Amino acid sequence: MSTWSNALNFEHLPVASSDALPALSLVDLSDWSLVTLVGEDKKSYLQGQVTCDVVTLDPALSTLGAHCDAKGKMRTIFRIFHHQQGYALLQRKSIMATQLPELKKYAVFSKVDIEQGQDILLGLCGENAQAVIDQCFAGSDEVRPFDGGTAVKVDDQRWLIAVAPAQAEAVANQLATDAKLATSSLWDLYDIKAALPRIEAATELEFVPQAMNLQAVGGISFKKGCYVGQETVARAKYRGTNKRAMYIAQGDTAQCPQAGDALERSVGENWRKGGTIIAGYQFSDNQAIALVVLPNDLDEDTQFRLSTQPDNLWTTQALPYSLEDE
Fold first, then answer.
1. For 169-184, how does the pLDDT look when each residue is reduced to its tens digit (9 = 90+)?
2. CATH topology classification for 25-194
3. Fold category of 243-317 in CATH
4. Which compartment or compartments is the protein found in (predicted)?
5. Is 4 annotated as contributing to ligand binding?
């Protein structure tokens, strides 16, 4: 049950691995959160902190990016967009308590206010999502400000809506017409199918950006100036120091794989740790799909299994984008 509205009941939407996804779903994204930045120095401050190019970000567009530590290990992956006279970074709520203080650490020297946003976050998904967005929010851009919030295009079948609590119920009721109501597990499924990376508390400070394919989804600028962790990120590109990548894996499961779970790989007749689960989704027919970071030089026919479920074999699936450098 959503905590901000008694009028709508968001429930887990059972989906079998062979099912088509609903034509329209409204998703409660209560396990996501925003970081907001406002103030005169917001652009220059953020430019020196993150992997994406904030200076050239068109107000009509959003982009992925990461905030790293000095060693180039990611504290978070976010989607950044212009929002309410500043910027908003959409990221997992589980890392907020540790990542936000690090992002604010040097803000005392700049004219910028960095806070956890109070916006209600909703997702609109499905083949009919674009038509509903066009009816509800004026404009043709991929980022559309409206009274009380911002609508942001994620992909061809998904939009994020960030709206102030005072307007949230009215906006949600408008979007919910003809839509199935779902918890954020449905958003997880879309993210996994699109192979969009994320950082949870269980995977914070574990990986460099290229280990989660951030360069392949437009989340790293190799032309901008210095930022925290840049040397490591640059070495991973120009010297080939990164030996891992993120893949989609699927297999039988008795329970949904969780971020941080270990996926073992077959080595002859033996099993060794192969990788780490980033996000998982369990279908209603005991199949599961997950994002997993693995060595990037494995044979295509390598088999995998969850360390906690050794009897169920997993295989990797094709990514929806290329990992080859341009």
1. 999 999 999 999 999 9
2. Gyrase A; domain 2 (3.30.1360)
3. Elongation Factor Tu (Ef-tu); domain 3 (2.40.30)
4. Cytoplasm
5. no
